[in-house]
Each structure stands twice: as C-alpha cells, then as structure tokens.
Amino acid sequence: MSGLPELPDTFTTATALARGVHPRVLYALRDSGDVVELSRGVFRRADAQLASAPDLLAVAYRSPVAIVCCRSAAAVHELSDELPPAVQIAVPTGHRPPRIAYPPTEVFRFAANTFEVELSRLEAAPGEWVRIYTPTRTVIDLMRLRHRFGESLALAALQRYLRRRDAAPAQLLRLASMFDVAGPVRRALEVATAE
To answer: Pick from 50, 56, 106, 176: most CB atoms within 10 A?
Structure first.
C-alpha cells in the first residue's frame, strides 16, 4: 500500500501527515494490519522489529517530556516482580500532564529542579529510546512515595537494588538527602545490611 515506505518504524499521525500520507491512507494501513496503533495517534509498522516495551514507547511518543518512574521503572530494572496495571510516568511540576487512555497511564508531578536527576534511557525498540529513571532514583522515589505504594514494595526494591552488581549505597544516601528521605533510607539500609 502506498505511504508505508516513507514512514519510520514508530511514528505519530503528525509525522505521517508531514511525510505526505493522507489520513485516509494511514487508517487504511491500520485497518489492513500494515501498521499497529499503539496509542491514539501513535503507530508502529507491522514489519518493524518487535518492540521490547511497546507501552513505554507509546507513552513516550504521546508525552516526550515524561520519564518512566516508580512501579514501571522498578519492573524494568527488576527491582520488583509486580507488573504495574498502568504505565507510571513523571512530568515536571508546572507542566500539563498528558491524558492517555491507552495504554493505561498514571502521571506523577515531580519538582522541576530535580526532575532530571538520575535520568537514564531504555531501548524500548531497536534504535528507539525512552526516558527512565535509574535504579537508584527508582528506589528513592518508591521510598518517597511509600505512603502511596506501601512500605513493603519500597523495602523489597531496596533489597533487590543492594544485590545488584552496580549498587551504590553511598550514592543512594546522597540522593536520599537530596529528596528528604535520608532517615528512612538509612534505617532501611541498616536493616538490610544487618541481615
């Protein structure tokens, strides 16, 4: 079908229109199965290599400023076995949160001055990257939000973090001070290392 060769592996409706693909052609490509709609206005070519994290990829295209956080980041970094019911993302305070019905998405607002602290990237599809917090920042965020997610999730993530080869307890404590959770993190570290 015409229009497909001009499109990248993952693209938005705006990208398709900018490349001269008429909306009627775009939706015919979707209906024929040549492209898959990942989220409203976000498509992926059916002949592209499989995406390892299609939900995260879709959300990243819908909200480029967003960073994968909390439970979603914990699942990616293997700090938790829990599969979150929604993609959890953070946007800076003062930024309008995206409204994404599919995939289910939960948005958190994080302080703008620390928003990109411990920012990393995940290859969600070959050559396509998603912004995600590092394992260290993920543990800190779970500790900060333990009243919301439960202390058991935060402590389990901390214990798994400490078993990683790249664990950096000193960096964890520095970050905990920056985010005002130094006391709880220090106590959790003492308990975890005493076992």
So the answer is: 56
CB 69 within 8 A of CB 84: no
* Residue 113 falls in which region: left (phi positive, over 0), alpha (psi -120 to 50) or beta: alpha
pLDDT for the residue numbered 191? 75
- In whole angstroms, give the CA distance from residue 167 to residue 99: 35
The length of the chain is 195
Residue among 52, 57, 53, 149 nearest 100 (CA):
57
Q: Where are the domains of the chain?
A: 4-45, 54-194
Q: What is the pLDDT of residue 142?
A: 94
Q: Which helix (DSSP H) or strand (DSSP E) does residue 11 occupy? A: strand 10-12
Q: Alpha-carbon distance 162 to 180, whole Å?
A: 20
Euclidean distance between CA atoms 90 and 138, whole angstroms: 12
Question: CA-based angle 10:13:16, to the nearest 5?
Answer: 75
What is the C-alpha separation between 91 and 93, in angstroms, rounded? 7
pLDDT above 50: residue 75? yes
Give the pLDDT confidence score for residue 194 in this predicted structure. 64
Q: 9-25 b/e with 16+ CB inside 10 Å = b?
A: bbbbbebbeeeebeeee
CA distance linking residue 195 with residue 188, whole number of Å: 11
